Amino acid sequence: MKIEAFALERWMTRYEVDVAYDIAESGIAPLTTRDLLDLLPGDDRQSMLDGLLDTKLGYSEAPGSEALRAALAATYAATGPDEILVTTGAIEANYLLFNTLLDPGDHVVAVAPAYQQLLSVPAAIGCQVSRWEVWPEGGFRLDLDALERLVTPATRLIVINSPHNPTGAILDADGLRRVYALAESVGARVLSDEAYRWLSHEDGPEPVPPMRDLGPLGISVVTFSKPFGLPGLRIGWIAAPADLVAACWGARDYVSLSPGKLNDALALLALRHRGPIQARNRQIIAKNTAAAAAWFAENADLVAWRPPTAGLLTMLAYAPDMPSLPLANRLAEEASVMLAPGSTFGLEGYLRIGIGQEPAIFRQGLERAASFLRQVAAEVPTRAGWRAGIDAGAAVR
Description:
Layout: H1 7-15, E1 21-22, H2 33-37, H3 42-54, H4 66-73, E2 84-87, H5 89-101, E3 107-112, H6 117-125, E4 128-133, H7 144-150, E5 155-161, H8 173-186, E6 189-193, E7 218-223, H9 225-228, E8 236-239, H10 242-252, H11 261-272, H12 274-298, E9 303-305, E10 313-318, H13 324-335, E11 337-338, E12 340-341, E13 350-354, H14 359-379, H15 388-396
Parallel strand pairs: 1-11, 3-4, 3-5, 5-6, 6-7
Antiparallel strand pairs: 2-8, 7-8, 9-10, 10-13, 12-13
Helix pairs in contact: 4-11, 5-6, 5-10, 12-14
């Protein structure tokens, strides 16, 4: 299979290990192994540590440990361990699902812009991909009427992502049910990329049900990376009917074979103690949202945003008349700040900002970004209509 270059990942890789202030990242600030172990009381902590140190680093259970799959299954309304496949992050889960479910010529409707995998992999398989657009002109919202116009009797798969990467758009529970009913009406499945499950804002909307809970055509893909601050574990999962999970497991035999034993064990620890992790995350989000709101207000002549109400991401509109890629490159190289170029999502004139970073780093990154953008604004003219998408979003909310 020939596939196009992954623009965002290539850009992130270029800078993410070198910059001092990464405020483009899509996940919450990472935890350490010590942080995880400290979730346990003293005796249990020592027992867990001894168990990790004494673990033989051989192959693990190929679909993920029975303990982890059972614990994940218990978070759904009617799902058993055989309906869970532990994967190498959500990215492997999506890849396996696309290659298991789809054939050349199949019709797929996928949210766009999106994490590029959700569009590029079906296209590389040879599918006809219709883009469900989330654009500035529509106020950065998931327009269900527009989705309904794209779905046909030939549609085999609908791909959604809420909260949406990169715009922060969300579907409520009624919206999710409408998507499922639409898929059901044509016999399609729904693949729901639920990367931000269990990551909530203090004053945010009520949590919505996972797509898996809506019926047999619903597939949930989730990750420990973003809501748990554990991207280094490389653990995600598929929740789907047992026959589909088995087929994906068969395909995974040719890719990564199995998750690592230590990764699996630490993921289970995090899942069982997600309450304190969620509380920590809400504090980070609240502090960074407040800091960002003040920063955007102070620099309203230069930048604008629509604060996310769920998840961690939104788009930052900027005034200087410069394409987003060279602007983001210069910001990283000259100010050591990462804000991802909107061009990697097809959203020129925007930068992606994430509010999950450690608060001190986040505040300092904003300050440095403002100084740099003011310097650029003195070099180039202001872009006409640069706030239009943000203002449109405010109008439809």
